[in-house]
């Protein structure tokens, strides 16, 4: 007989790590750091049509001391790099960085002396988002993948050591690879997990996208 059977109704049992990570990913406040045209798409994502508020992210913080996530939206100039680093250092731990758009990720079309060729030269990046500029749907997908990564972050030195050992052995599970559209469909989620275990996750994603496109064309 497990502990769950002895507890009264309405009581949930979980781990401290899961509840802490759930709290972190459910109230992730982005720092306002729009640098170029990608910032327009970021603002659109926060508006009513796409609604960041569904994920507890409606408050774009004007101060780095109350921000968890830095969305670097646009190209980073050499003059802006030290400012970006200073803002990152002022953000409290834990904190995450999302590189939005090809210019922030690799310099994009601006392959010259004035632009930093990738924001990861300045701050550590947790999630890269391609596109020029990426659409709001793509930003939402990247944020949901980051949420999945946060949900599985280790809490405490013992768990961090266990995760490091699993990565060294090659047995650590990769998170953030599931398409966001699969996450809330139980059937697709189960099929994705089965395909991932069999090593054909990418093939399953392509086949599913093709079926969905065919269904959309048929409805039209």
UniProtKB/TrEMBL annotation:
Classification via SUPFAM superfamilies: HydA/Nqo6-like (SSF56770)
Keyword tRNA-binding: no
E.C. numbers: 7.1.1.-
PROSITE patterns assigned: COMPLEX1_20K
Names of required cofactors: [4Fe-4S] cluster
Localization: Cell membrane
Chain sites annotated for binding [4Fe-4S] cluster: 37-38, 103, 132
A biological-process GO annotation: electron transport coupled proton transport
Catalytic activity: a quinone + NADH + 5 H(+)(in) = a quinol + NAD(+) + 4 H(+)(out)
Complex and partners: NDH-1 is composed of 14 different subunits. Subunits NuoB, C, D, E, F, and G constitute the peripheral sector of the complex.
Family matches, as NCBIfam families: nuoB_fam (TIGR01957), PRK06411.1 (NF005012)
Protein name per the record: NADH-quinone oxidoreductase subunit B
Species assigned in the record: Cryptosporangium aurantiacum
């Amino acid at each position: 007989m497990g502990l769950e059977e002895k507890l009264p109704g309405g009581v949930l049992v979980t781990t401290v790590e899961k509840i802490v990570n759930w709290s972190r990913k459910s109230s992730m406040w982005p720092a306002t750091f729009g640098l170029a045209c990608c910032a327009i798409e970021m603002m659109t994502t926060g508006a009513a049509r796409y609604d960041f508020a569904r994920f507890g992210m409606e408050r774009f913080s004007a101060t780095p001391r109350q921000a968890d996530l830095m969305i670097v939206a646009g190209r980073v100039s050499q003059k802006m790099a030290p400012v970006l680093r200073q803002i990152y250092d002022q953000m409290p731990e834990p904190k995450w960085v999302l590189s939005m758009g090809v210019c922030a990720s690799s310099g994009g079309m601006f392959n010259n002396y004035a632009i930093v060729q990738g924001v990861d030269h300045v701050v550590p990046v947790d999630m890269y988002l391609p596109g020029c500029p990426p659409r709001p749907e793509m930003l939402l997908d990247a944020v949901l993948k980051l949420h999945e990564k946060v949900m599985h972050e280790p809490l405490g030195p013992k768990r961090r050591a266990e995760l490091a050992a699993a990565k060294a052995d090659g047995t650590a599970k990769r998170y953030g690879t599931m398409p966001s559209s699969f996450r809330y469909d139980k059937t697709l989620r189960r099929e994705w997990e089965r395909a991932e275990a069999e090593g054909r996750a990418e093939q399953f994603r392509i086949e599913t996208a093709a079926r969905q496109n065919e269904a959309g064309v048929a409805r039209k």
